[in-house]
Amino acid sequence: MITEEEISQFIKKIPPTPVILKATVNFVNEGELTKAAKVAAKDPALSKYLITLVNKPIYGFRNEVHDLSQIFGILGTSGAKQVLYSYMLSLLSPSKWELFKLNKALFYDLQAQLSMRWKKILEHLNIDDKDISSAITLLPASIIVCEALFKNHKEDVALLRSVKELDYNTILKRLSGFDLFDISEKIATTWEYPDKISKIIQAASGVKPSDDEQINLLGKWMHLQLFYTLSQVAYIEAGLNDFVDFQVEYVQDIYEEFSLLSEQL
Amino acid sequence: MRAVVKDGIGVFNPQGFLDGNNSPVLLTIDDIKATEQLKVDMILISLKKVIFFNKNGLDIFVKLLINLRSKMHIIIGFCDYDQKKYRAIMKFYEKDINFSLFRTQKIASLFASTNRADAHTVLVYNDDASQRSTMAIELFDHGHNPVIAQNKRDFEEKKQNKDAYFAIVEDTFLGLFGHKVASRVSGNAVIYTVSNYLDAEISDNFNLTYHMNSLNVGFRLFIIDAYKVVSMNIHAFNFFAKLSSAAAEYNATICFVGLTFEKTPEKFKEDLEDSGIMFFDNMDDILKDKELLEELGAGGSTAVKHKRTINKVIVNELPRFIDATVSTIEMMTNATANKEAASIDQLHIPDTENKLASSIGFYGDMDGMVILVFPKEIAKKTCEILIGEETDDEEAILDALAELVNIIGGRVKSLLGEYKVSVDITLPRTYNNLDSLLEMIQGKKGVQVDLNFDNDKFIFFLTR
Q: What is the total count of domains within chain B?
């Protein structure tokens, strides 16, 4: 169904980070938000993405925000870095979704919801770390990888799933030895994401717990919030609810805490 | 979301959070239509991957399940939950619970009629005495040996000896059961269970297609478990007489077990005996008497009166069967499968040692059977994606082989459908002993295609 050759081809096609984006991220890392805004303004697509994303209802701004300096100011360094990584990932998303019933707007919504909820989770856990904050942006990479690799194998997967409860992640792992999260990690490496982000994403798969206590805890929260988000009608209709297996036991010990927090999410 | 079918049980596996908003979208109209076409004894919703649910969310599933039950006459309910979830469901529905709850799919399978009736010792406990009795009766009916704990203390004590039981049935509730004539397979005999008053409705509740198909795939002994029958009228009598005539064409035998004649006319018995039906008092009189089983045809070696052979219709569709097999093997192994040789003859297996086989029947606009024969190691390799881990467990490999032919059957069905040929597929059968496969097909001619992938050879055989 999916060969290692197809996976290598996909990995080879991951584009390098665009120069303007790289420069913007560097300024954000240095805390130079005004300079970051100025550089970002040179890329119309990036500017449009930032304006669209920040004006989504989940960000909760009363008035529409158009000025990039203002946007970077509002987001702060952690928030700005998170949004820039989300943009980077959106560059990899397909123009037309075939496996999942998604479109650009719905995918951006998903990114925005995951980011905002992750922010609240980190506040709840008293964690203030730019890399950890940005880690959530890589989570939708697993969806993009799944779309790219499985879009031509929908019927095969449906037949397999008629006799055995197998998710895309397991099918890929059994076929190639790689899973969706391993390939997401390759994307992170190509784009020079900090190591910590890849480790959290691997733990968030729910099937590869980390030995590092903090990373494992963050993986659990991320796994649970992914399924909280994917249980929404729009994402169930998009076919995202069961693209990877939900590991109930992995998140059992944080569920009570999560359910209390979810009232605010 | 589609139901995963195994051992006559269709299971939906929702995950995450279930509430009144998202439950309706988890099952689309197409999913429900596809479910209605399934040949299953039970449809269950697994709560294994559900971390949160509320009553509104469950209500939507319950409503859908009840609709399915009224159309399909099957058992419906939920499975795969812990005690906390069980208590929540019982609290939500209190005395208004008209579906079943099975703590695990393994427990559910004990109550499914299609499953092989390997007798298992099962420990049963429920706070409610009537539930305990109902479960005990149903388990006994399904060929098991239920051990009933009379109270919690008794249960906890018996539970200590875990290894003594195949399963421990707790946090389980039997709601309304389906009304279909239940069927199961014991060795090479098909057992149908009928109950109460038998009248004209028997022809609606009896799955004649399943029966004809069982004849086609080689079953020769059919036992009608009639312990719970009060009486039958002339319409039911006529139905069984016709069933017997059809069976005679295949040299098959139909037996009634446990039927009493207090309220059923003795004349019916005489006439049914004349039409070839036999009567026994106890199931064990047949199932435990090997010589009698052989004599009645359950050995599987009885000659077929009208041997059905491969015909032009099937040969014309052969490329689609081969395509379905080759593409399935390729999909599951990522290796290229090639056709080596094809011939129309009896099934020829050069060496029957260390080989496994599986078969699946199809019926409708055309009928027949696909058989695959693999060397054991190749079967394991082919099914790696389904097995998931290294195993030499023959049962797990046979299970995966059954799933493989099920996928092939599904593919054949959809390929033929594109050419307006409508067929249904049967449950798959597996063979760890090829002698019993050869006995089953009894020298029938068919199309044999030798296939290979990555230089590993296996046999595809298509017959009627």
A: 3
Q: Nearest CA to A100 among A229, A238, A5, A263?
A: A238
Out of B50, B331, B406, closest to residue A163 by CB: B406
Q: Is A95 on the interface with B (CB under 8 A)?
A: no
Between B81 and B113, the more confident residue is B81
The partner residue sitting opposite A237, judged by closest CB among B25, B328, B384, is B25
In angstroms, the separation between the Cα of residue B12 and the nearest Cα of chain A is 9
Condensed to tens digits (0 to 9), the pLDDT of residues B407-420 reads: 888 888 888 888 88
Same domain, A151 and A237: yes
Tokens at A201, concatenated: 């994403």
Asked if residue B382 has pLDDT above 90, the reply is no
Q: Is B13 on the interface with A (CB under 8 A)?
A: yes
Domain hosting A10: range is 4-16+91-262
Note whether B17 contacts A246, CB cutoff 8 Å: no
What are the residues facing B121 on neighbouring strands? B145
Q: Report the complex ipTM.
A: 0.80
Q: What is the mean pLDDT of residues B322-344?
A: 82
Residue at a domain's end among B296, B329, B352 = B296
In a domain, B307, yes or no: no
Q: Which two tokens stand for residue B83?
A: 């005690």
Residue A71 burial class via C-beta count within 10 angstroms: exposed 0-12, middle 13-18, buried 19 and up: buried
Residues A65 and A135 in one domain: no
Name chain A contacts of B15, Cβ cutoff 8 Å: 227, 231, 241-242, 245-246
Could you tell me if A249 and A127 lie in one domain? yes
Nearest to A248 among B5, B49, B385 (CB): B49
Q: What is the extent of the structural domain holding B228?
A: 182-296
Which ranges of B275-311 does DSSP label H, i.e. alpha helix? 283-287, 290-296
